[in-house]
Amino acid sequence: SWNPQPVGLQEVLVTLRHSTDTSFGVQRSITQKLNSFTRVPDYIAYLAHILFAMTQEADYVRSIAGYLLKNNARLILTSSPEVAEYVKAAVLRAFDDASVMIRNAAGQDIVAFLGVLEPRNWPECLSQLVNMLDLTDLDKQEVAFNVLEKACEDYPRRLDVEISGTRLLDFMIPKFLSLAEHPSSKMRSHAIACLSYFVPVNCQSLFVHINAFIACLFKRASDDDPSVRRHVCQSLVLLLAVRPEKLMPEMANVAEYMLYSTKDTDENVAREACEFWLTFAEDAELAPYLQPLLGKVAPVLLDRMIY
């Protein structure tokens, strides 16, 4: 039911078009103008309209609107219901745009608005994201999973909610576990990363599937993609800190794998694996389990030092 006023729309558009001018005087004027726009009650609706509907505009102009929309996400809390609904609908539709630049901008907006509104107040967004994971278009699958990963990383507790009698994560966790087998390494990496973020918050929906999760980690431990291996190491570190009893039956194998990963040629994997030994060393209750391994661990750590 919201529609932009032509004069206001033109004023915002002209400002966005000039925002790439690097001269100091212009930048100062643009900043002042953008700050003054935030006092307009439906400013975020204009930004959402430019991002989604103004396909005749250059992608950089539309993506700047998306960037400003993300930075002003909190304004939705004080917006009228008409403006809020328009913004939410426009962002979701922009997320299906043909342009990668626009989809990325809309993805950042979704993460910001989900954080501000909380997932329980925007269930249709989560529904769209999860449904996109089943698409045959890999690009759209990956961009949806990228947004979900950021949400899982930034506010895992907020996702652990019940909506209309259904616990959201009771559906999402098994979905992530199945996608850890995806042919695309990016999808596998997103899946394991998302699962790992629910370990520190003691998410019951994850711990119901804890054995399947650990089996998944062991299966992906030798993955060809270093990003997947890094997230496997990250997950094992988090499990050691939160649920060490689940790793104890397989500790000899886990320790061997972490030793191997500490020597990984990919620095990000090796650094993540080092966190495993740090977690061990800082927990007095785990220290006895580390002692028998020191003969193997110490030489590897010394060998991998920079100096």
Automatic annotation (TrEMBL):
Recorded GO CC terms: cytoplasm
Biological-process GO terms, alphabetical: protein import into nucleus
Domain of life: Eukaryota
InterPro entries for this protein: ARM-like, ARM-type_fold, Importin_beta
SUPFAM superfamilies for the chain: ARM repeat (SSF48371)
Localization (cell): Cytoplasm
Name assigned to this protein: ARM repeat-containing protein
Keywords: Cytoplasm, Protein transport, Repeat, Transport
Residue ranges that the Swiss-Prot or TrEMBL entry lists as coiled coil: none
Organism of origin: Dendrothele bispora (strain CBS 962.96)
